[in-house]
Amino acid sequence: MMVHVIRENFLKQLSTTVEPGSCTEILSHEPGRMVSQGSILTNSRWMAILGVLSLTAIAVGLICLHFGAQPIAYGEVLRVLGDMASDRDRTEGTSDIARTILLQVRLPRILLGFLVGCSLASVGVALQALLRNPLADPYVLGVSSGAALGTAVGILFGVGTTFLAETALPACGFVGGLVALAVIYRMATTYGQLPIHSLLLTGVILNAIFSALIMFITSILDPNRSYGMMAWLMGTLTAPTYGSLVGLMIYLSIGLFLLFSQMRVLNILALGEESARTLGIDTEQAKRSLFVLSALVTGAVVSVSGMIGFIGMVVPHAVRLVIGADHRLLLPASALVGGTFLMGADTVARTLIAPTEIPVGIITALAGGPFFVYILLWRKDRLA
Length: 384
Hints:
Layout: H1 2-15, E1 35-36, E2 39-40, H2 43-66, H3 74-86, H4 96-131, H5 143-156, H6 165-188, H7 196-220, H8 223-233, H9 242-260, H10 263-269, H11 273-278, H12 283-305, H13 311-323, H14 327-351, H15 360-378
Antiparallel strand pairs: 1-2
Helix pairs in contact: 2-14, 3-4, 4-9, 4-12, 4-13, 4-14, 5-6, 5-7, 5-12, 6-7, 6-9, 6-12, 9-12, 13-14, 14-15
């Protein structure tokens, strides 16, 4: 009863101080219903928004299958997908070349882009709620660099050339991310606490150290592997095999399922550590859990796509401005938008100057950089 009274009084006080669209406008005055940017999150609203975003993702995926060095008609795309779904042989009017391009090159690449975009955006949402800063993402904290270093070490010792590569490289990235987190906690923890400012400063330091080690590994590889490493570091989505996609989905499904189970905790953490403790949340345990999940997802993603920036930073912030800060909707919506955005960005990267491909990390930086500057200038008084 005492906890309920404290919570009720706290929410009444909160409702008079929060700003529309901010990370703190997320708690409900009624059980099971949450206020989000002036509107109550209902089941119908949740389903409508996610339904529209899902249909948009499917439509963008079909458009991406059409474009390439050799454009393929939409009718032919639909016939090939229909044959694959029904497990039929090639239908009349569909060429073997088009079928091979769609099923062996473009479709797995588009699926990979969607998985990577979903994962980066989801991790960005979690870290932004935890740090209460809409400009946070896994790269700022050094988790991504640690994952990249773990993957680079695996490649150095030949993991990328073995039959276990499809599942071993994501594991290497996960281990690297966990090592980075262990170092961060060792350096940033003070009297059993983990101050946010110390955490960010430690992340910047580790980013510099890990980047130097990655460059060292790149410099001692043979020229062919060194060139591939440099392209990977810039962010690239080379056409994967379906086996590698399955291996990646195993890692991501575990991490994302556990991350999505923390949506209500993220809502409370966005209010601040003191407020979260008042509402009965073990903030230190929540930090550890969220950072381990972030390492799992980021490590798996970085191992296959390299360093793709701005998705985990810009996409969650942009989605939050449109639909509000309730993480029950923000997290899945950001995942869908992030996956859709990366599918489109990769299509631009492989068709802009075809047959030459641009690393997709360059496209996301060119698209996200100006938006990041806009956010920084427009909301700089709220980002401190």
